[in-house]
Amino acid sequence: MFIKILQYISITALFSLSFSGFGQQRGLPVLETPGSAESLAKGLTTMARASQAFIYSNPASIFNTNTKFNTSYSVGLLPTQDKNMSLHSIATAYQRDRSAFFMGARYFSMGSITEQWDSEMNPIDQGKKLDFYSYTLDLGYAYRISNSFTGYTKLGFANQRVISNFKAYYLTLGIFYSGNIHQGIYSLGVEVSNLGFDKYKDKTKSLPSLLKLGGSILLPTFENHQIEIASNYGLYMPVDDYVAKSHFNMGVNYIFLDKYSISTGGHIGENNDYLTTGLGLKYQSFRFNIASKIAMRQDLENIYMLDIGYSL
To answer: Please, which domain of life does this record's source organism belong to (predicted)?
Structure first.
């Protein structure tokens, strides 16, 4: 029994080190993974403008597009020295009049280990493979209160399998203001997310809620050329033994010929500094984005991500 306890302690320690870039001390890493390559390319500025995967970025921005329906799929690869992790997400949005409805799901494959003993401490021939994974199921609704103000809410459930099951239930509330300045369009918003709790066996504790302030501005440069500048500041509120921590994201997206885009951005704070870059293409009703995150420390993970989306 002592040997098995040591094995589980080692597994837990290795798992925590593997996800240091996702704030593992806050709970489930899947809640902090990027929801789309489009958002990741702009420094993971989730309060920037979006063209797809609205539920994992800025739901209010759907009203700044001609989109009535959108569906998208994103896949990400997180290579490490001892294993390759992968991230998958799907998202759907439907806009009607002043209302918009969203659905999404994420699946995070976090590798596996081989267990050498069963529950009775008997050796297992060739070992038993244990897969580590987590997933989320998310619903959202946005309402355009006026031509300037949009409010939204999101509900989510997360489950994580790492030796034992962890579960989380969370709520997000946000409001955005949009306006015009000269020939540009700007938006400013505030969002509170992670309003909920996680559960492990019979223990329940509150999630550290995240307050975000941010927005973006879209300016014309030349004919059929635009530049978007976006940023957001995030503050994790203190709860239980978790102290407050903050971070800052910023991104720039240059759009040319109304179909191509090139983006770059970055994140600072929480000992998790990184740079991002990406490319985008719009072809008829389809959108494609690729992005990469390059960590500024060797012990943090890089991410390479691809989006495919369709809009009507």
So the answer is: Bacteria
| pLDDT higher than threshold 70 for residue 123 | no
Q: What is the pLDDT of residues 139-170, one digit of tens each?
A: 999 999 999 999 999 999 999 988 778 999 99
The pTM of the whole model exceeds 0.90: no
281-293 confidence digits (pLDDT tens): 999 999 999 999 9
d(CA 11, CA 194): 27
Which CATH number applies to 2-311: 2.40.160.60, 2.60.200.30, 1.10.630.10, 1.20.58.340? 2.40.160.60
Domain ranges of the chain: 2-311
Contact 89, 105 (CB under 8 A): yes
Identify residue 255 by its one-letter amino acid code: I
Under 8 Å CB-to-CB from 14, ≥6 apart: which residues? none
Instruction: List, as one string, the DSSP characters of 13-76.
Output: HHHHHHTGGGTGGGS-GGGGS-S-HHHHHTTT-TTS--SS-GGGS-GGGGGGS--SEEEEEEEE
